[in-house]
Amino acid sequence: MSESGKTAKPLSTALPDPEDADNVEYDPSLDRLRALSSHLETETAFGSPSYVSDERSRNADRTKNAVDDDFGAGDYAHVEAAVEYARSNEMVCLDRRMGRHPDHSYVCRLYVPAEYGRIALAWAKLFEPVEGNPEPDFRTVQVPDADETAIRILPEEGLTAVRGSDYTGEAKKSFLRLFMFYAKKKGGLGLHAGSKRVTLERDGDLEEVGQLFLGLSATGKSTLTAHGLWLDAPESATMLQDDVCALLPDGTVAGSEGNGLYVKTIGLDADEQPAMYEAVTHESAVLENVDVADDGTVDFDSDRHTANGRAVIERDHLASAGEDVDLDSVDQIFFITRNPTMPPVAKLSPERAAAAFMLGESIQTSAGDPSKAGESIRVVGTNPFIVGSKGEEGNRFRELVADLDVDCFVLNTGHLGAKSKDIGVAESVTLLREIARGTVEWEFDDTLGLTIPSEVPGMDVSAFYVPDHVEEFDREQERMRTERRTHLDTFADLADEIRDAVY
Prior knowledge:
Elements: E1 24-26, H1 30-36, E2 42-43, E3 49-51, E4 63-65, H2 73-88, E5 91-101, E6 104-113, H3 117-124, E7 128-129, E8 138-143, E9 150-154, E10 159-163, H4 168-185, E11 189-191, E12 193-202, E13 205-214, H5 221-226, E14 236-241, E15 245-247, E16 253-255, E17 260-264, H6 274-280, E18 286-288, E19 291-292, E20 298-299, E21 310-314, E22 332-337, E23 345-348, H7 350-359, E24 361-363, E25 376-378, H8 390-404, E26 407-412, E27 415-416, E28 421-422, H9 425-437, E29 441-445, E30 450-455, H10 473-488, H11 496-499
Helix pairs in contact: 1-3, 7-8
């Protein structure tokens, strides 16, 4: 190792060749992976496997990458330790393809200890099998039983080491993080976003509207992306991607997960989310940290293990999922927030949209830091997985939405004031449907300083006027503006026109 701590040649070259190594079982079947973790499984009443992990959320505070962080000898040692573990212990190794776009498709290789085949089982259901025998673009080694929890990323090498965590989300995000990093290197922008194609009838013809939803986990992103918007044939709403995609300069949106979704299950309701419920309760699903009794009974309302209960579901069993994962063009982008001082929806200029992107206002969720769940939080792009300059991400976002003439909105899926007025799924769905139809009437509100709906078919939008529900609204609004300006000032490379667009 050099004095800087960086090895002379890529560490990934030291990983065992899965086709030749005696200690590696290469590309085992899904049944085999389930059998390897049978000692950890509780079978649900639906016939699906359920597991409880020791780690139940991502370890964001123990994650470092070699682009943004002070990455020294100790950090490289974590990667080396993971590689050495893969060389000397019984492992399983799988290859999967992430994305289908000709310029944004990558072969991903995951190594996990054989006894943790359940991690590989869940991960394998998210991405598509690889055809032929291509070399992997990205590699992850996950070692749950390491003596220290540390996630270390070498982005330029496409290598991630996950030590001390048995949470499936670490494996999933290790590859999606690099998908977004390389999208930016190629002139696009990786987004922590769901994508949707809405097909509407206008003047006897069918037209398509492309929508993107940016939001932290547990803020309604998956629910709204998968929702059918209560449309009847020939109209429809089709989910293309649930979690991560890439906005490209030509307006197309490249998807990443071609086979499945990793969804939150807490509070899953068969009446409000029938398509999602059906997929989660299918025998093909894999449940993680969900309350399952010894007799297989599943309680989606229980947080016995965590409020971050998850399920890997297959697209084939989600009625709202389309066959495509790429969106031909994007027309509307929604920033999902839970800020109680924001209206149910507001329309934004490209500069204000970029400011909203940089502010990333939401609430902390159990997927990030369970100990702070419910607290206000700001995450640029509502994307905890950005590698590289965050200010440059905001500048790139403004350029793309301005060049592509994309309409942008901030959408509040929480409540107004001190929980005095809830904004439910019904209200959010109505707004999304009517915005797609172009039937919403807009007006600039001087008090709010925002462009908000004055008329929405099927909804009494006046009942959700923010000042009516927030005590001392003027004082609260000024406090928020001051905080927002201070926050944007922390990004030295952010364009002035974005900094000045704070609302």
